[in-house]
Write a structure and sequence with these properties.
This protein is mainly alpha-helical. Strands 1-2 form a two-stranded parallel ribbon. The chain is elongated and about 70 Å long.
């Protein structure tokens, strides 16, 4: 199991919220409640710290998520390395008919 925390900075969050007000293509993402949540940004960070401490049996991967391409690259890299390290093999052929003689 892999656990990722997509960490968006306070500055990037503000940019994204403002973009939802200014860009008609992003109006659908707008929610007035997001501004209330933003006002509690620092409180949320403290709660996240507690969660990370208490739920760390499986380690977290903290992903800088201000940039989408960096976020996707980091997650893909972790998944790729994990799969590579698993050394997954194809299952053996179970048919007697086609086994080499």
């Amino acid at each position: 199991m892999l656990k990722f925390f997509l960490n968006v900075s306070k500055e990037a969050q503000l940019e994204r919220l403002n973009e939802r007000l200014e860009n008609p293509e992003k109006y659908w993402k707008h929610n007035d409640g997001d501004w209330d949540t933003r006002a509690k940004f620092d409180e949320y960070q403290k709660v996240y710290d507690t969660i990370f401490e208490r739920c760390s049996y499986i380690p977290w991967h903290f992903v800088p998520a201000d940039s989408n391409w960096q976020k996707l690259y980091y997650v893909a890299k972790v998944v790729h390395e994990t799969l590579k390290n698993m050394n997954i093999q194809w299952p053996p052929l179970k048919s007697e008919r086609f086994k080499a003689k």
